[in-house]
Design goal:
alpha/beta, TIM Barrel, two-stranded parallel sheet, 41% helix, binds 6-O-phosphono-beta-D-glucopyranose, beta-glucosidase activity, 6-phospho-beta-glucosidase, GH
């Protein structure tokens, strides 16, 4: 899960706003606002999903107890930057925000659950939007101060950290990934890559600071992963897919290898784009690479040289071409378990670092009727098929630190803002207008996954 998709209490205890807090759901212009946030800023909506979310802020003891009963050994979530530094620029942190995460981590540790924490899961304080978002170099220092604060505070409670969720998101959705409004940019490619560069430097600085505070910290990057296949064996399609993959890997290349890949440097040069990159930045990148590669995987992607006449499908980060060999879920996202094995092998071969799968799961339209728990065999099938391929990848020699399904409990969808796009092993009684008791009920998949954990994957 992530902070603003689960916590709620978006305006409580001194918290500042993040982008999620100013947009409604897909029934009320969310997709339009994600492309131009000013659309949402001009309006007041009746219901903002993140303001209440699933109320994890108040219900975390019962939720963590359910995760413990499930047998979970790790909880992957994030700290909301704006709970700690409401506007992002304050010198002193907000104690109430810090105290909340103390309570959450203590509760996890009570049950032997290891918190796996992302510093920025689409939660840059919204106030920064007005000064250009991540296009503004000053964010590096503000992020470093935030990272130092939480690293010091939780140095004995959290060992596994990731700096920026799906850092490649800034390239496809610059507002979500970097608070950069594409409609306001003369040269959006320039703006996106400048923002990405500052994020990379901020992430590397966080690695440096974290290691000084606790050398045992394991600090990773996080990629929205999923190989892009060529539509056919036509070399034109293969070249298109090759370039697409290079584009998605480029920022992770910097975080793992400490230098920009030639393909990106050259692409920017060819397009006449000059970025503000100092020698000091390059040293910081070089000297502070990550310990592991965190990733989300929902499906592979598909591209072709000539896409115009081809059908499209939904996908994480970006829509993709429809692959005729794959099945789709209620939201048009396709399932490709073998693509998971391919992606894991590709990442490991490229980076030679342990991989941590922190997101993989299946969304569906589900409605609990007459107190009957949801029978989500499709989700069981999806997770089972992916776990089999995870095991195959491990047999191939890929080093895997962990796997956390997305997600333990229904949460607000990041792209659509809809709770009714459900991913959880536990059902939450809430609809897209904000009605519902918020009661939790384990689904069939919860009980199945309990067996998976207790048998350490032998009983799938
Ligand atoms: C990833 C995000 O992009 O995909 C998650 O890290 C998100 O926050 C997940 O929830 C699934 O996407 P969505 O839009 O269906 O919630």
């Amino acid at each position: 899960m992530s902070a603003s998709q689960a916590e709620g209490e978006a305006l409580k205890d001194g918290k500042g706003l993040v982008m999620d807090d100013v947009v409604a759901n897909a029934n009320h212009e969310r997709y339009q606002a994600t492309a131009d946030i000013d659309i949402a800023l001009r309006k007041t909506y009746d219901y903002y999903p993140s303001h209440r979310a699933i109320d994890f802020y108040n219900r975390y003891p019962e939720d963590i107890k359910r995760f413990a009963d499930l047998g979970a050994k790790a909880l992957r979530t994030s700290i909301n930057w704006a709970r700690i530094f409401p506007n992002g620029t304050e010198e002193e942190p907000n104690e109430a925000g810090l105290a909340f995460y103390d309570r959450v981590f203590d509760e996890c540790l009570k049950y032997g659950i290891e918190p796996v924490i992302t510093l920025n899961h689409f939660n840059t304080p919204f106030e920064f939007y007005y000064s250009g978002g991540w296009k503004n170099r000053e964010l590096i220092g503000h992020f470093a101060r935030y990272a130092e604060t939480v690293f010091k505070r939780y140095k004995n409670k959290v060992k596994y950290w990731m700096t920026i969720n799906e850092i490649n998101m800034i390239l496809s959705l610059p507002l979500v990934g970097g608070l950069i409004n594409p409609t306001k940019e003369e040269n959006i490619i320039q703006a996106k890559y400048q923002g990405a560069h500052y994020q990379l430097v901020a992430s590397a600085l966080a690695v440096k600071i974290g290691k000084e505070i606790n050398p045992d910290f394991q600090i990773g990057c996080m990629m929205g992963a999923g190989m892009t296949y060529p539509y056919s064996c036509n070399p034109e399609d293969v070249w298109e897919a090759y370039q697409e993959n290079e584009k998605e890997y480029a920022l992770i290349d910097v975080q793992v290898k400490g230098v920009y890949p030639y393909s990106l440097t050259n692409k920017l040069k060819r397009e006449g784009i000059e970025l503000d990159i100092t020698d000091e930045d390059l040293t910081i990148l070089k000297e502070n690479t990550v310990d592991f590669v965190g990733l989300s995987y929902y499906s592979s992607r598909l591209t072709a040289a000539d896409k115009a006449s081809l059908q499209r499908a939904g996908a994480n980060l970006n829509s993709t071409l429809k692959n005729p060999y794959l099945k789709s879920n209620d939201f048009g996202w396709q399932s490709d378990p073998l693509g998971f094995r391919i992606t894991l092998n590709e990442l490991y071969s490229r980076y030679q670092l342990p991989l941590f799968v922190v997101e993989n799961g299946y969304s569906a339209l589900e409605k609990m009727e007459d107190n009957n728990p949801i029978e989500d065999d499709y989700r069981i099938d999806y997770i089972r098929d992916h776990l089999k391929e995870l095991k195959n990848a491990m047999d191939d020699g890929v080093e895997i630190i962990g796997y956390t399904p997305w997600s333990g409990i229904d949460i607000i969808s990041a792209s659509s803002g809809m709770i009714e796009k459900r991913y959880g092993l536990i059902y939450v009684d809430l609809d897209d207008e904000g009605n519902g008791s918020l009661d939790r009920t384990p689904k069939k998949s919860y009980h199945w996954y309990q067996k998976v954990i207790s048998s350490n994957g032998a009983d799938l």
